Amino acid sequence: MGVFSYHLIRLSLASALKMMFFPFRSKNIDGLIHAETMTVMILGSPIFSKTRFFNREIAVFAQWENEECLNSFLRSHYAGKQLAKGWHLRLDFLRQWGSISGFRIPFQKQNQIAEDEPVVAVTIARMKYLQIPRFLRWGRPVEKQVRDDLNATLSLASIRYPNIVSTFSIWKTQKSMTDMVQGHSNLPLPKRHVNAMKERDRKDFHFEFTTLRFKPLAEYGMWNNKSNYLFTQAKIQ
Q1: 21: closest CA among 11, 32, 30?
Q2: Which candidate, 34, 43, 39, places its Cα nearest to that of 17?
Q3: Class of domain 3-219
Q4: Sequential DSSP letters for 11-70
């Protein structure tokens, strides 16, 4: 299974377009199992806002055979050198709900962490095109719920056309994340996530959908002039 990584980088318009139109592939990179390259969206932003169409901020979610392969990519590959100038998190898989093609996800959950430890959640979906308006109607309230939760130290969405959407969030504790998911947070309308999941169960929005939970291993670089999303001194390459 190896290690997962989540990268954020702000590029020039030309570099961002190149990375989106010509994303790196596993067949060309030693030790890369799979990667999704997307543009960043602001959670809860208006449907017709600029960030929902294209952004120079790029997110990459990848799975690697081991950390040595990731390190080699960041040192020697042209796209890796770009990503090394940004921010990234290394992740140890905990468990999965749903399924997604491309990645090699174990069928059973792996390690466990205490409720007071930080946790990272990643969702990825391949949308049914005709369900996108309905998905936005139910999904945007959940985006705002995650965005406004003070227990999420970093949260964002991302998109790759024509139909891949994803979310990423770092939580101070596993309990604070599960409280949000189960509708027990202190925010107004705490059942937004619960209600959206019920609606998805009634009529699915997606061809494929998965929620992945990770233990954060290490933080590298800076994002938005900050490097302590895990409340530890970040390792700067």
Answers
A1: 11
A2: 39
A3: alpha beta
A4: --HHHHHHHHHS---GGGSTTEEEEEEEEEE-TT--TTSGGGT--SEEEEEEEES-HHHH
Distance of CA 36 to the CA centre of its chain: 10
- pLDDT tens string, the chain, 237 residues long: the values are 689 999 999 999 999 999 999 998 888 899 999 999 999 988 877 776 776 778 899 999 999 999 999 999 999 999 999 999 999 999 999 999 888 999 998 776 667 888 999 999 999 999 998 888 888 888 888 888 888 899 999 999 999 988 999 999 999 999 999 989 888 888 888 888 888 889 888 988 889 999 999 999 999 999 999 988 987 433 333
Tokens of 18: 């190149």
